[in-house]
Sequence to fold (57 residues):
Amino acid sequence: MRGVSLLPLLWLVIGIVVAATHHFFEHLTTIGAILSAIIAVILWPLILLGVKIAIAI
Fold:
């Protein structure tokens, strides 16, 4: 049997921590804010490089 890779899980955990420290989860009242938070979790290396992620809907 083939084991499950921990890399995707680790990627998401780090993304959640980075997004939380950059205040993406504070005001999730609009769809744009929710999408920004999801994208920030997935693309967390860009946040560390200084890219500002904001979806305005």
